[in-house]
Amino acid sequence: MDSRCLPIHLGDKSYDILFGRGLLKDLGSKVRPFCAGGRAFLLTDQNVDALYGATAENSLREMGMRVRRLALPAGEQTKRFDTLPEIYRAMSDFHLTRADLVLTLGGGVIGDLGGFAAATFLRGLPFVQVPTSLLAQVDSSVGGKVAVDMPWGKNLVGAFHQPKLVLIDPDVLQTLPPRVFRDGMGEVIKYGFLFDPTLLDLLQDPDRIEEVLFRSCDWKRRVVETDERDRGERMLLNFGHTVGHAIEASQNFSGFTHGEAVGLGMLAITRLAQARGLTEPGTAEAIAARLAQIGLPVRAGALDWEKVRAALQNDKKNLGDHLTVVLVRRSGEGYLYSTNREFFEGVEQCLA
């Protein structure tokens, strides 16, 4: 089968992103070189497991690997610190060693959770990302940031742990519910307004999805190669995430999806910046139009804004009373801006 390869150059942590229709059926042969010990621990969620779990496991077994498959409940509520003991116990019972392999088959929740478990069990196991949601394929599976949520904030406990391989099969997107597919488009819109306005013109054409995947990952590759540890340019990828994460936390991760919240976050912070002369007039309106075009929300509705403001205090980009926010001067030109918490005064009016 035809596949396309995008290498990420990170010295001894370099790896490839493979793109290709039907690649999931060839999973075993692609990952076998990374599994010297012969045991493969396959983490997934119950929804994905019903669709693709057996296919993935059979492919691994056909290459002579012993497989332990663990399917967790689907949803952001699973990406909690208190889920980890169940995973660690299953890994221990399977006698995983650092010569074996962890695979994450699912969306961003499973990729983040399984990646963090791999980063911490036995002080680090090799792992492979097999993202099955659009959001995970264009963003969260690439770059090595893995984390779990705490009740008061998103991604507060995490690590940098690069995968050995990312395997992206566009065919699996065909089984996504419409809302989950739109969720991933929020991150694609982010890339468009940060770096590449021409990417936005592909969003309505389903025949261009493979180009959307490749170009989105290529933008992330460029940033990660420059700033793997999120100390400078990589912070640009958090456009919309400061307010977006706060919205998610205020709803106990059970309201807006991640992509929906990020879209609202991009819109809110751009309206705030535009009002302060930090963004070219009309940019916020362009973001709102793209979100609405895809079917993502442009109004927040009834939120507990006290909880949102409290969650903003826990943003990982905060340094004392100062914080770095990600803004766009205009479509395609993102930048970092140092400010203070007063910047967010009036944020609720931006999403009314």
TrEMBL record:
<feature type="binding site">
    <location>
        <position position="241"/>
    </location>
    <ligand>
        <name>Zn(2+)</name>
    </ligand>
</feature>
<dbReference type="GO" id="GO:0005737">
    <property type="term" value="C:cytoplasm"/>
</dbReference>
<dbReference type="GO" id="GO:0009073">
    <property type="term" value="P:aromatic amino acid family biosynthetic process"/>
</dbReference>
<feature type="domain" description="3-dehydroquinate synthase N-terminal">
    <location>
        <begin position="71"/>
        <end position="182"/>
    </location>
</feature>
<dbReference type="InterPro" id="IPR030963">
    <property type="entry name" value="DHQ_synth_fam"/>
</dbReference>
<comment type="similarity">
    <text>Belongs to the sugar phosphate cyclases superfamily. Dehydroquinate synthase family.</text>
</comment>
<feature type="binding site">
    <location>
        <position position="145"/>
    </location>
    <ligand>
        <name>NAD(+)</name>
    </ligand>
</feature>
<feature type="domain" description="3-dehydroquinate synthase C-terminal">
    <location>
        <begin position="184"/>
        <end position="318"/>
    </location>
</feature>
<feature type="binding site">
    <location>
        <begin position="108"/>
        <end position="112"/>
    </location>
    <ligand>
        <name>NAD(+)</name>
    </ligand>
</feature>
<keyword id="KW-0479">Metal-binding</keyword>
<keyword id="KW-0547">Nucleotide-binding</keyword>
<keyword id="KW-0963">Cytoplasm</keyword>
<dbReference type="Pfam" id="PF01761">
    <property type="entry name" value="DHQ_synthase"/>
</dbReference>
<comment type="pathway">
    <text>Metabolic intermediate biosynthesis; chorismate biosynthesis; chorismate from D-erythrose 4-phosphate and phosphoenolpyruvate: step 2/7.</text>
</comment>
<dbReference type="InterPro" id="IPR030960">
    <property type="entry name" value="DHQS/DOIS_N"/>
</dbReference>
<dbReference type="Pfam" id="PF24621">
    <property type="entry name" value="DHQS_C"/>
</dbReference>
<dbReference type="InterPro" id="IPR016037">
    <property type="entry name" value="DHQ_synth_AroB"/>
</dbReference>
<dbReference type="GO" id="GO:0000166">
    <property type="term" value="F:nucleotide binding"/>
</dbReference>
<feature type="binding site">
    <location>
        <begin position="132"/>
        <end position="133"/>
    </location>
    <ligand>
        <name>NAD(+)</name>
    </ligand>
</feature>
<comment type="function">
    <text>Catalyzes the conversion of 3-deoxy-D-arabino-heptulosonate 7-phosphate (DAHP) to dehydroquinate (DHQ).</text>
</comment>
<keyword id="KW-0862">Zinc</keyword>
<keyword id="KW-0520">NAD</keyword>
<keyword id="KW-0028">Amino-acid biosynthesis</keyword>
<keyword id="KW-0170">Cobalt</keyword>
<dbReference type="InterPro" id="IPR050071">
    <property type="entry name" value="Dehydroquinate_synthase"/>
</dbReference>
<keyword id="KW-0057">Aromatic amino acid biosynthesis</keyword>
<dbReference type="GO" id="GO:0046872">
    <property type="term" value="F:metal ion binding"/>
</dbReference>
<feature type="binding site">
    <location>
        <position position="258"/>
    </location>
    <ligand>
        <name>Zn(2+)</name>
    </ligand>
</feature>
<dbReference type="GO" id="GO:0003856">
    <property type="term" value="F:3-dehydroquinate synthase activity"/>
</dbReference>
<feature type="binding site">
    <location>
        <position position="187"/>
    </location>
    <ligand>
        <name>Zn(2+)</name>
    </ligand>
</feature>
<keyword id="KW-0456">Lyase</keyword>
<feature type="binding site">
    <location>
        <position position="154"/>
    </location>
    <ligand>
        <name>NAD(+)</name>
    </ligand>
</feature>
<dbReference type="InterPro" id="IPR056179">
    <property type="entry name" value="DHQS_C"/>
</dbReference>
<protein>
    <recommendedName>
        <fullName>3-dehydroquinate synthase</fullName>
        <ecNumber>4.2.3.4</ecNumber>
    </recommendedName>
</protein>
<dbReference type="GO" id="GO:0009423">
    <property type="term" value="P:chorismate biosynthetic process"/>
</dbReference>
<dbReference type="GO" id="GO:0008652">
    <property type="term" value="P:amino acid biosynthetic process"/>
</dbReference>
